[in-house]
Amino acid sequence: MSTARRLRTALVLVCGLAFAAGAAAQRAVSTVHSQAGPLRVVEVAKGLEFPWSLAFLPDGRMLVTERPGRMRVVAPDGTLSAALAGVPDVHARAQGGLLDVVLSPDFAESRLIYFSYAEPTTRGARTAVARAVLDAQGGKLEEVKRIFAQRDNPSGGHHWGSRLVFARDGSLFVTLGDRFNHRERAQDLDSHLGKVVRIAADGAVPADNPFVGRAGALAEIWSYGHRNVQGAALHPETGVLWTHEHGPQGGDEVNVTRAGRNYGWPVITYGREYVTGLRIGEGSERADVEAPLLQWTPSIAPSGMAFYTADALPAWRGSLFVGALRGSMLVRLSLDGEKVVGEERLLGELGHRIRDVRQGPDGFLYLLDETDGRILRLEPGN
Which of 159, 182, 192, 246 is catalytic? Predict the structure, then answer.
């Protein structure tokens, strides 16, 4: 075994011991009931400000973004690092700021991370994606490079999208909101608003994207007709991208998000106008528009999404979990292939906005509690 590999192995062992020691000091804040039996809600860390995204490092630590523009490393015992240096300036207004973060598939060798953020521009701001080398020991990001930015940069502070998901082929899906006041652009292929895009790890356009070579269409676009996608994950068996998005006063959707497909917004939707309550668009179905697997009316304001594949909570294996902001809960969806066959609503008694949902390396579910600025862990309660 090489010296470098021995050092990495020792680091993992030390962090594993730290995790075991730190877990004893963490505080169970509640016991809740579920169809799988009682669950213990454990406070892993606190003191975060509007946490938005969580990623697990190979050594057991966590990387967390805070919307005001900070990124921190969280130790297994819940200790927060200082804000990492090197994060670019963000447009931290309304819903904008520092948003998603994911590790590169080759992170163990490259130390590369990818993150999305609201990038300030002369006209307003736009959703952008950057990559950087993480120096967690030194408390900084190095070699920061923006690899993608929306062509559109309107004013306003809402609907940034911003979830990042690596496909199995190494390409990167980026979800982009319609920026609220520009919803009609979600149907236009010469705009990045209201789209899911697919780029290579360096920002280049994959040659097999569905609109490559089509006149008047942006080659990065994977799918269109979206409102504000804030949950995205690959199906663990098929590798297909699943997303969910916010609807207005209803019409939140869960979708299987395939290449070149139209998901309807704002022409085909279950949503209604905020002020008048009138239906939006021309209806909820059309032959050339992909129907959602599930829609929520009234809206639960979904955010964060994860498939559960571990053994720590065996009754939940194969379920899809969705956090909810307005609904202040965690939703578990039972699946049969690409059909939703059951729904269970959890943690509603806590009354907290769940911003992100991730499966941890220990097999438990980890949640970002935006209301109290905490990382929570769900464990069996017996």
Answer: 159
